[in-house]
Amino acid sequence: GESVGLHLPTLSVQEGDNSIINCAYSNSASDYFIWYKQESGKGPQFIIDIRSNMDKRQGQRVTVLLNKTVKHLSLQIAATQPGDSAVYFCAENKDTGNQFYFGTGTSLTVIP
Amino acid sequence: EPEVTQTPSHQVTQMGQEVILRCVPISNHLYFYWYRQILGQKVEFLVSFYNNEISEKSEIFDDQFSVERPDGSNFTLKIRSTKLEDSAMYFCASSWTDWGETQYFGPGTRLLVL
Questions:
Q1: Which residue in A51, A98, A101 has the most chain B C-beta atoms within 10 A of its own C-beta, making it the best mutation to test that interface?
Q2: A83 by DSSP, 3-state: which?
């Protein structure tokens, strides 16, 4: 079956540094990906998405990179701030339906 | 900014009891979803709902689960006879379109089955 996984369960960075969170997916048919941020006690919050016809997409302080060859997704956060501390999930979707498959999450801690 | 709301925030129930989790999706959204997250595990899709019927469901969504949109604003998840393993955080989400559209999540209901 499909699986979405994250390489590192935890990541600690100094405030102001850049963060990179990685995600591997196994279903080559997936064509839409989302990064979510989940703060303690809250539901997942959309950060940025990317479709499979792209390899990079930029938002405000965030960039998502997609490497379909190795089925790898990454989230880059520039100038990480304490408010960025949260668990980050990647999720994948196939155009045959609206099920999203989530990874287990990476916990990002920003050290002031 | 419009948001998805869920009630209750926490629910404790005895094994075998029925529970109903309630959600108010964003008002102009047409697609509605339930997910669950067992403590420390990944978010798992349960079901999607559109035009008053289930459009997709996962293998988790068995006969003990049901969903309903009883009026123009609420979207409910019913668990008929709860089991210990149903203890989890249940998230409702809604979206304007289906494929590829971002889903907005509610804050979740934490269900504890004793």
A1: A98
A2: helix
Beta bridge partners of residue A38, listed in sequence order: A87
- Contact between A88 and A48 under an 8 Å Cβ cutoff? The reply is no
Flag if A99 and B55 touch (Cβ within 8 Å).
no
- What's the CA gap between B113 and B96, in Å, rounded? 33
Provide the pairing of β-strand A106-111 with A10-14.
parallel
> For B7-35, how does the pLDDT look when each residue is reduced to its tens digit (9 = 90+)?
999 999 999 999 999 999 999 899 999 99
A92: left (phi over 0), alpha (psi -120 to 50) or beta: beta
A18's CB contacts (< 8 A; 6+ apart) are: A76, A77, A78, A79, A80
Structure tokens at A11: 């990541």
Contact A102/B48, CB-based, under 8 Å?
no
Q: Which amino acid is at A5?
A: G
B35-56 tens-digit pLDDT? 999 987 889 999 999 999 999 8
With cut-offs at 50, 70 and 90, classify the pLDDT of residue A95: low
Choose among B44, B99, B105: nearest Cβ to A98.
Answer: B99
Question: Does the beta-carbon distance from B44 to A91 stay under 8 Å?
Answer: no
